[in-house]
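Lecture notes, unit on protein representations.

Consider one protein chain, 412 amino acids long.
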Amino acid sequence: METILNKETHNLSDMKQLNFFLLSTALLLLSSCLVKKNMEAKDNFVKSFDKPFTAAAAQYKIMMQKLPPDRFPKTYHKAADKLETSGSDWWCSGFYPGTLLYLYEETKDQALYNEAERILKVLEKEKYNKSTHDLGFMMYCSFGNANRIAPKPEYKEILLTSARSLASRFDPKVGCIKSWDSKKPEYLVIIDNMMNLELLFWATRETGDSSFYKIAVTHAETTMKNHFRPDYSSYHVINYNPETGAVQQKRTAQGYADESAWARGQAWGLYGFTVMFRETKDRKYLDQALHIADFILNHPNLPKDKIPYWDFNAPDIPDALRDASAGAVMASALLELYKYAPAKVSSKYYKAAETMVKTLSTPAYVAAPGTNGGFILEHSVGHIPQKSEVDVPLTYADYYYIEALKRYKESK
């Protein structure tokens, strides 16, 4: 009896081991299939990103053919089929080489890199330009990306000279880098200037010279104090007394009204203070960026697809023009900010940026292949009050869209 029980127990044990083996094998096979499917899904997802980059590269190859040798793309006039260009001293000159370099990174198309190197030689002389505050846009978006991709001593020299030229426009009495020169007794500073500070932080990292860092921080502090309303919307222009540093006037230039929230101005502030936190790790800059993000995303006039009207207070909403350039800058900024934001709001910022990127990637904003003078996006707004660059492609819209798309891909 005992032998039979032992035999039955042994058989039962063998069956359990067999069942465990079969179950484990099945689970292993299922897991292998799931891993394979997940890898295939990820590959397909990554491949899906290749399409907009490849299409954008094709557009810029068209632009390359249209562009005069010593000129930079500015916008395109559809009715006249005319590409409008600028000299290297225009504030947007760095975006064309910067976009080429971003597209080269994603496509590995050597023709794009070669064109970037060619046009950088035309741009180089602007390192000595002390008449503009936009050397961050001009030189860091271009030479900064070139140096990041393939560092060269000459790139470093160009960027350092540019940083010194930019720093020369700082006045400690005002606590800001001057934006626009004026013959009147005024010292004009625009919110856009927050975007140029990244060049100064780079210069301190490279040289150990803290003066660049201090100028950037002082400018940001003064901007936080004077540019923002209680709801964290931003004025466009602050007019300071050049002798005392006191605020003389708060107004707009490109927005609808002095007290309105010009969309791209809000985007510049969002992006600029996100960079400030990245570079300093000072929590007050993160708080400022979060407040600006909340103003934008919680605004009742922000459309569901998250591409803003050109001004949040435009009088003809919902018929007001959208500004793809503002949406692109916002998307790119949010795709960095979400990484620093508290967990409870991080996903909100990410999802908003995702919506912006996906909306901009639709035919509603992406130009049909071979059209638009080679620009990628349509429907940006430059300066409605001056009736300049209204509902047209703009070179900085392309730059920040490709940057946002790149950041979105890297977040997956």
